Amino acid sequence: MNTAIDSGYNFAYLDEQTKRMIRRALLKAVAIPGYQVPFGGREMPMPYGWGTGGMQLTASVLGADDTLKVIDQGADDTTNAVSIRAFFERVAGVETTTATAQASVIQTRHRIPEKTLRADQILIFQVPIPEPLRFIEPSEEETRVMHALEEYGVMHVKLYEDIAHHGHIATTYAYPVKVDGRYVMDPSPIPKFDNPKLHMSEALMLFGAGREKRLYAIPPHTRVESLDFEDHPFEIQAWDEPCAICGATDSYLDEVIIDDQGARMFVCSDTDYCNSRSEEKA
Amino acid sequence: MNMTQQTSEAVRPHDWPGLADPVHDSQRLFRQLLGAMSEPGTLTELVLPELPTGAAISPAAWGALLALCDLDTRVWVDQGLARANLAAALAFHTGARLTDDPAQADFALVTPDTLSREDGFALGSDAWPDRSTTLIVMVEALAQGDDWWLSGPGVPGERGLALGNAERALPLMRVLAANRAHFPRGLDAFISSEMRLTAIARSTRLAGPGLAATDDAEHQEETA
Prior knowledge:
Chain A: Catalyzes the breakage of the C-P bond in alpha-D-ribose 1-methylphosphonate 5-phosphate (PRPn) forming alpha-D-ribose. By secondary structure, chain A is an alpha/beta fold. Chain A has helices spanning about 15-30, 50-60, 80-90, 140-150, 155-165, 195-200, 270-280; strands at about 35-40, 65-70, 95, 105-110, 120-125, 175-180, 185, 205-210, 215-220, 225, 255, 265-270. Chain A contains seven helices and twelve strands. In chain A, helix 1 (about 15-30) packs across helix 2. Chain A is globular.
């Protein structure tokens, strides 16, 4: 363990009573999979929208012997990921890594790592808008009643409107799921490519929304179904070409424009997956 | 006063062990509790110093209280478990308040027998199922076994538990099995014996002698 911790703060920044409040909420979230538990969100030293919800969960879960990985859209080296990793190095002194397999806690913005997660790992999602029904029903009071009554028909209407307009379900990220046959849940803006990884995962998955002050969870080995229709079954994205760097055909690819003539390439969004594959080949 | 000659009434609050390193010990205990609730029926050992003579709760239950309670929580304690000055010790170490009203309790210290007498614990509401009581249960023994079968979230296939005498554990298991009928309202339980602890979440399906058969056929199919 790195002992050069910033001693002006409690371990992992949050005070102990805040951590306990979040921990109690997390236990409820795990016991009621997919249900959004309110928590007393604290102001973090960064603006809303940068992962304050995920950070508060990470701070409450993290221990001195944990190894932390932070990804932003799959990448370990983008501003958001680098900043959050540096933050926890400074206030908790924990080991950090970019290797998915070596991490015990992974905080993520909008991706699930390609490498299958293990039972001893916890994945913590940053969530902008936790309520999957929000774009259909703006009232929090109403959506709460809809969840209570399991009144989810309107969600299928939204997907049906996609089909009516576009001929297919055009929702490609934050694709709604049903958890353990009960709660409809927003999996955060992960591409729908990642939705199947939520189903029967070995790893515990926690979701934190800082601005909305809600957290929720999917325990390991839990049924997670993406909503669909019999004649329009759920499908994930596919690409015609492999990753231009590592040649992967089984990972989520980002489109990168490489010159001003419109030429482009497709590369893995998961940088650790891409790097480790490239190293193996070299 | 000679320590060895104390009666249980003379146990002082600070005779109960606190956490030597409050920040990291409570984090370690919480991760064990989180792991237990995420994977119902798995066993974990909460390592804690010995409790004072006369204490009627398990060290694991005491560990859960130390990790989770503070001045924001209300605790209901079965009178049979309130030995060795437990109430004062809990207030001293955590600041938690005791309540006589089970419906107000965030946590309740109980035995399976308590649940055959007391049924007023908070289940939460359909809109706010999180406003419920979490049970911390003392059982005579806790091991993997084939008396009680758990399935559902956190359980690949099925997981078997034995809680000592099945007849005596039945009031507890009846209450927890009833969770399915009024889900998402319900009671979550940490179940402990000595240092050993497991959890049964309200999402857990239970089967065992004396319990009504589960009607959750869809789930059985999925995990079979």
